[in-house]
Design goal:
By secondary structure, the chain is an alpha/beta fold. Helix content is 26%, strand content 15%.
Length: 411
């Protein structure tokens, strides 16, 4: 295997407000992957200005049992806000908001959480048990697994407010020989229709929009779903669902006296660039050299330390237009050291009978987009954002940063 040369991560710095990461090999996502050996998927990418050859499918190997992934080393930023408690949680809870344009897949993202949790331990990363903390939350978990796995269809878009409260318990592998870390927290999410996040929409009442602003303001962490295909539609462009909400949240946080010294919001944010499995996203990313595999047959990915650069490429070169404004607004409203990035998919790729990725047949959605086909869902980067946010909201809450400067450190 060879290690491909990737672009630098232009968005991973601190724009002068904070320190750059002193620990080479660690990313805001908390994984140590810069020292791992990766191989490009398909042919090498042509030099700039040259013709890009079509990718060549990798050979279909004989069955090889999956092996555990590398140890998950965590590196998290200093925090300001303590976690907000959820009744019944032990030892405490975090309030995380899921934010995105109408149709960006918020309900599907949440529905994939229990599936991703069950599969997480297979990759040697963590064993997490997710359970509902009230009857409606438990019913959502059961219904989501039934729809995505048994019925092979996507959940219906949210039409009304839905409060979800889940407990997460388990164990994360220790980094560099350290003891495993216990995970025990509660997650509170308010699932709202996408139009509630558009201040100019007349499809929802003012009360529901105000509820969305209040919820995101009170959250410690935010999962922001950026759908690169949806963003091409002017009616669902991400900027329509971002700037108005962000400015209202900033106004409320300012009035509460909770802004960081540099004027930014105190939230921790996980930016999920969705639909990584879709050919209209996967193929351009493949040709641009962002997609790699640890070995032939493994599920393709964008390595964690490349994810900020992948998001920049997505906004600058692939999507352009208002997507650049969304990228700039995210780093304007939120501190870069409190942000992490993920190439994610709620259903993942279609796998062959040996449970391996085959470039010749990887699409996992029927042509009409209404049903999942082939193998059961294999979510990509669904649990990771939640764990990153939970870790970022815990730890050194009693050591607020001065002057808006944040430092990275290991736990």
């Amino acid at each position: 295997m060879t290690t491909p040369t990737h672009r630098p991560d232009p968005g991973s710095g601190d724009d002068g407000d904070g320190d750059r990461f002193p620990d080479e090999g660690y990313s805001p996502n908390g994984h140590s992957d810069t020292s791992r050996a990766w191989q490009p998927l398909g042919r090498d990418v042509a030099p700039p200005g040259g013709a890009v050859p079509p990718p060549v499918p990798p050979p279909l190997p004989a069955y090889d049992p999956p092996r555990p992934a590398a140890t998950d080393n965590h590196s998290v930023a200093d925090r300001v806000m303590p976690p907000i408690g959820v009744p019944g949680a032990s030892p405490g809870g975090v309030r995380i908001g899921v934010w995105g344009a109408s149709g960006s897949g918020k309900t599907t993202f949440l529905g994939a959480v229990p599936i991703a949790a069950m599969q997480h331990q297979r990759r040697g990363r963590a064993n997490l048990v997710v359970a509902g903390m009230d009857p409606s939350s438990a019913e959502f978990l059961h219904e989501s697994v039934d729809q995505l796995v048994s019925e092979q269809r996507f959940p219906q878009a949210t039409r009304a407010q839905r409060d979800l409260r889940w407990s997460f318990s388990g164990e994360l592998p220790g980094a560099r020989g350290l003891r495993a870390r216990r995970v025990n927290f509660a997650l509170e999410v308010l699932d709202l229709p996408g139009e509630a996040f558009n201040p100019r929409s007349n499809q929802v009442g003012e009360e529901l929009h105000d509820r969305a602003v209040t919820h995101l303001t009170n959250c410690g962490g935010l999962v922001y779903l950026f759908d690169p295909l949806l963003d091409a539609n002017q009616q669902t462009a991400s900027i329509n669902y971002f700037f108005g909400m962000a400015s209202q949240i900033a106004g409320r946080v300012r009035d509460e006296g909770r802004l960081l010294a540099n004027g930014r919001l105190p939230h921790h944010v996980a930016v999920c660039i969705t639909k990584f499995d879709h050919p209209d996203v996967f193929e351009p990313a493949l040709r641009a050299g962002w997609v790699t595999q640890e070995r032939t047959g493994d599920i393709p990915c964008v390595p964690d330390h490349q994810a900020p650069g992948y998001f920049d490429w997505m906004c600058d070169s692939f999507r352009g237009g208002s997507a650049r404004l969304v990228r700039d607004a995210l780093r304007n409203f939120f501190h870069p050291a409190r942000m992490s990035y993920y190439a994610s998919s709620a259903i993942g790729f279609r796998l062959n009978p040996h449970n391996q990725f085959d470039y010749r047949s990887y699409v996992n959605v029927e042509p009409d987009g209404g049903r999942i086909c082939g193998s059961p869902p294999m979510p990509i980067n669904i649990i990771e954002p939640l764990l990153s946010l939970e870790g970022g909201l815990r730890g050194t809450a009693d050591r607020p940063p001065r002057g808006g400067r944040l430092r990275w450190g290991r736990r």
